[in-house]
Amino acid sequence: MAEIDAAEIDPGPAARPSDEAAETHRKAMRIWLAVSGVFVLGMTLAWPMAAIGAIFAGLLVQGRRPLPMKQGIGAILIAIIAMVANWYVSQFLLTYPTLFAIGVSVAMYALFRSAARGAPPAIVILITLALLLQPVLIRMSSDLAALAATWLPANLAIGVFASWVVFTLIPPRLDAPAKVKPGIVLDADRQASRMTLVAVPFALVFFSLNWGAVITLIFVALLTQQLCASTEAAGKASKGLLLANVAGGVVAMLAFEFLVMAPFYPFMVVLCLTLIGVFSAAMTSGAAWAPLAGTAMNAMLVLLGGAMAPLDDSVASSLGDRLVQIAMAVAYILIAFNIVDTYLPKRPLSHSETGDDPARPTE
After folding, report:
1. DSSP secondary structure letters along 193-228
2. DSSP helix/strand/coil, 41
3. How far apart are CA 125 and CA 122, in angstroms?
4. How far apart are CA 288 and CA 73, in angstroms?
């Protein structure tokens, strides 16, 4: 069971407001440097799925401490094993549609349950992408599937390495919080069931219709992870996600139009640095809508990265079409979660179930 509500933090007597403000600024700088560094370098060297690497880097620099080396290497190894295993299992199960549907359902439930119990978000997103993307890409082209199987773990490794570099360049100056008061703890089994009831039908219909809009699967993977970590009613949270993704898509469209009008490398670098800097500042602003700034930035990265270095020519390359596809995916999640919230609402665990005693003093 994982605490998935925003925790109330007591910074202790040593942390003054000015110190916290300075640390918040350093966090914004870490996000900006990690995300923009990976994204601009990816566009420069044209490696596949660079936007995913930038998203991983952004996730890994939002804490107070870098990912320990042992955990980082372990995460990369898990990603490689998961991609190879999923490659062979997908090749086999695609010839047996019923077994394939059962396998995807069980795997997605187990993955969402792990996420609800506190599994690393980057690993959860990567394995979700593997489960959803590889079967589609195998049908489209074995070369594309092999490319995804290679570059998804590679982009995770790039994101991990970038986070280590950024924490070395901009280390935190405050210790990690000494006292953390637990927030709401949700029933992981029920949370996994809710996520599965929303994501799996979408994926199975997608596979059955051989729909080529791969970008919708990418956003289903990103959005389900975000909703799994939210204690708001999922229908309410989905409305914010819809607006954030549309806003990120509009920014990507405008940015791409500017790049078409001024197609030279220095302008691309300055534009990307500026946009990611604005999003990074918004993410750390402390405003109620700050978490949605990260969602909008991810949408911008995926859309703009796909427009500048598309994965495949057969996938719709129009930014307008892609934005419509994202809006449709988020609208589906909004409707589906409103239904699920009615019949299977979130259930917070009691203190006896979590093992927490509210009368026990905090150490």
Report:
1. HHHHHHHHHHHHHHHHHT---HHHHHHHHHHHHHHH
2. helix
3. 5
4. 35
pLDDT, tens digit only, all 363 positions of the chain: 344 444 444 445 454 656 778 888 999 999 999 999 999 999 999 888 899 999 999 999 988 888 899 989 998 998 899 888 888 888 888 888 888 888 888 988 988 888 888 778 888 888 888 888 888 888 888 888 888 889 999 999 999 999 999 999 999 876 655 444 455 566 788 888 888 888 888 888 888 877 766 777 777 767 776 776 565 655 566 677 778 888 998 999 899 889 889 888 999 999 999 999 999 999 998 888 888 899 899 989 988 888 776 544 433 346 777 778 888 887 888 888 888 878 887 766 554 444 544 444 444
CB 296 within 8 A of CB 226: no
Dist CA 328 CA 298 (whole Å): 17
Q: How far is CA 162 from CA 166, 168, 259, 345, in A?
A: 6, 10, 26, 39
